[in-house]
Amino acid sequence: MRELLLVALLVFTGSAAFAQEQAPAGSPERGYQAYMKFQCYTCHGTVGQGGERNVGPKLVPDPIPYVGFEVEMRTPSRDMPAYRKPFVSDQDLADMYAYLLSIKPGPAAKDITLLNF
Amino acid sequence: MSSKGIDRRLFLKSAAASAAAIIGTNLAANSASAQTTKPGAEAKDTELSGERVIGRPGSDFMVDVIKSTGIEYVAANPGSSFRSLHESIVNYGGNRKPEFLTCTHEEVSVAIAHGYAKAAGKPIGILAHSTVGLQHAVMAVYNAWCDRVPVIMFAGNSLDADKRRPGVEWYHCVQDPAALLRDFIKWDDQPASLQHFAESVVRSYKLATMPPCGPVLITADTELQEEPVHEAGNLRIPKLTFSIPPQGDSSALREVAKMLVAAERPLIIADRAARSQEGVTRLVEVAEALNAPVIDVGSRMNFPTTHYLCQTQNRGALVREADLVLLLEVADPWGQFNSVGDPYKEYRRLAKPDVKVIHISLGESLTKSNYQDMQRYMPVDLAISGDVEATLPALTEAVRSATGSGRRAALADRTEKLRAQYRQTRERTSALASYGWDARPVTTARLAAELWNAIKNEKWCLTATDGVTWARRLWPATQYYNFLGHAGGAGVGYTASAAVGAALANRDKGIVTVTFQPDGDLLYAPGVLWTAAHHKIPILMLMHNNRAYHQEVMHLQRMAGLHNRRMDTAYVGTSIDKPNVDFAKLAQSMGVWAEGPITDPAAIGRSLSRAIAVVKRGEPALIDVVTQGR
Fold first, then answer.
1. Which candidate, B149, B384, B358, B144, places its Cα nearest to that of B246?
2. B455-501 pLDDT, tens per residue?
3. Alpha helix (H) ranges present in B507-549?
4. If DSSP codes are grouped into helix, strand and coil, which group holds residue B347?
5. Which of A88, B63, B216, B457 has its CA 20 to 30 A from that of B376?
6. What's the CA gap between A110 and A114, in Å, rounded?
7. Which alpha helices (DSSP H) does A14-117 contain, by range?
8. Rounded to a whole number, what is the distance in Å from the CA of B140 to chain A's nearest CA?
9. Residue A49: per-residue pLDDT
10. Confidence band for A78, pLDDT divided at 50, 70 and 90
11. pLDDT given for residue A21 in this prediction
């Protein structure tokens, strides 16, 4: 049920603009430091691009809304580790989310010659 | 059989061709009848200046036996327990077929043989120095076993305690050499005579190459090696005859065909199904006859990635929707339909409860008790014992016979949707690959795209497809030799050595052999770089150097979350930095052309151009690229 709620949330609120509006204030710079410190990049990549073999889904572009992000961090629904409050503060989460929002999109696939297989 | 059925002679011809695919050119090499030892080869044992000279040691005959099987190489780290055989290979055999490949570790020897066999379709030998050599070899043997790949292993040993020198030789002797690895080899023997050796080597070669294939071990006793051949005229090397791989039962196949044709959402899942290009062609034929999507699990190259029925990336949705699944030599059938979460071990059923499942496989004929590579038991509706490649022609024919004109039209109606799914998947994958395109460290998608750009006009072989999966998702692959799967047992240390073995097999075929080389894997047995340089084996290793064991990072994070503990210590014991390993210098120190570390993705292409030139002139090359974790 919790997953269904998350999906519904994503469907109705899944735009970057909405996500940004709903997120608590955070620092992208501090967020980058936290993202690296907690080794989120191991699975999700240093710029949230996602990893191999679906172990780490992409986080950007279009991050999920903050409320979903927080739920996934604290009580993940699947194989992701649980990042608990005593060790990862609410401010850490807000900062990391701010970092994700700050990542600028790269070139589109259609504009990358090497991806024309 | 009806006139519309399969012509028995044609089938046998095709089945024989399948067998030839396993054993390659050895069919021709072994078409002669049983051989005796070489005429005139009975060099006399003489007294020379008061010293005894053995002009015709048993190891010479052993070389005759090995040559008779067509084994082209023996990979080995030298060891005194097979010193006589080593000397005979070089001086008596002329170091040609077999040629001695100098290795720096027995794990390297076996993994080279593993990679070679997958690329060549026939095995080579390895020599192991009794107890210690076999102990070094064991993990790589387990990989070959799990991957169902033939490796012909020889181990020296001195069974007769009365003949051993005191000290080290006792440490290096064992009553039962194969006991260490009997759980994961197909067969072994410790011959007590040269005639026994001849028969056991020929038998072991036959067993190793008979699907499902696997490693075998023959002990070469040092006394047999070093003592003179007596009564050489009586020694005979038996003729090597290969068994035709078995076809599944014809009446069962007709039943399968009816079920497949009647199914609304059939799905084919292939794993170690193809053994050759013929196998790929046959799988395409049956998939097209059914117009059914195919998931290629990837232990072998089973299905062209360019075909619209190749729906590997849509596995989840297809398994959920399927009303009938045809498994073709799938190593983990249960795992195709179910999952167990981590760390909470929640069970999830992915497929419909009433999905019908058919499995064509020889897997159960090679099931042992101790090691659990048999995977979880999977109840199926119909299990057919048979070699997939040998069975597919009959199945295709049965499917065609069972498809009436009305049903044919219904099957054809699937095309548009499947083509659209294929196209959308490609577009989605390209979009995913574009994220982080210019990132530093370099993304694995960028790494794969750069490598493809460098080899796209070549005949190419990617020796490991599990670490960086973008190649299987993006590269247009149509040939069996394009993708060689993975280690089998997921034992780290396979990638580099197997790549060198595959490159050796591809060396004379004009195939450019490449691998994405993980840093952790190369650090297990980096000496293989020296072997590649020494023997001029043209392999291109493009490092996926993420400076950590990143999979283990994730596991530590999961455990910390589970234990309600801090999350920022997962780097302890998992990182490979401080200092960073300079893989270019490591390779250069062993005579391998190398560049790096490269951190700028824009620099990879130029470096690859230089590396390809090195490889095409017949030498190994390594480019160290600092990459994202995954």
1. B384
2. 999 999 999 999 899 999 999 999 999 999 999 999 999 999 999 99
3. 519-524, 528-534
4. strand
5. B216
6. 10
7. 16-22, 28-37, 41-44, 66-74, 90-102
8. 24
9. 96
10. confident
11. 66
CA dist B594 and B607 (Å) reads: 9
B266 with B403: CB under 8 angstroms? no
Element (H, E) at B110: helix B106-120
- Measured CA to CA, the distance from residue B98 to residue B90 in angstroms comes to 9
All domains of chain A in start order, with CATH: 2-115 (1.10.760.10)
Q: Are strands B187-189 and B125-128 parallel, antiparallel or unpaired?
A: unpaired
Of A60, A56, A55, A50, nearest to A96 (Cα)? A60
**Cis before A24? omega within 30:** no
Length of chain B: 630
Q: Which of B430, B470, B567 sits opposite A81 (nearest CB)?
A: B567
pLDDT in tens, B537-576: 999 999 999 999 998 999 999 999 999 999 999 999 999 9
Residue from B94, B118, B489, B65 nearest B237 by CA: B65
Give me the count of residues in chain A. 117
Q: How far apart are CA B594 and CA B610, in angstroms?
A: 10
Mean pLDDT calculated for residue range B252-280 = 98
CA distance B516 to B3: 50
Residues of A with CB under 8 A from a CB of B: 37-39, 41-43, 45-53, 55-56, 58, 60-61, 76, 78-79, 81-84, 86-88, 106-110, 112, 114-115, 117
Q: Hey, which residues 553-582 in chain B have their CB within 8 Å of chain A?
A: 553-554, 557-558, 560-562, 564-568, 570-571
Percent of chain B with pLDDT over 70: 92
Note the pTM of the prediction, 2 decimals: 0.93
Q: Which residue of A has its CA nearest to B451?
A: A114
Measured between beta carbons, the chain A residues lying within 8 angstroms of B439 are 45-47, 49, 106
What ipTM does the predicted assembly reach? 0.89
Helix, strand or coil for residue B43?
coil
Do residues A61 and A105 touch, judged by C-beta distance below 8 A?
Answer: yes
State chain B's mean pLDDT as an integer.
93
pLDDT mean over B27-49: 51
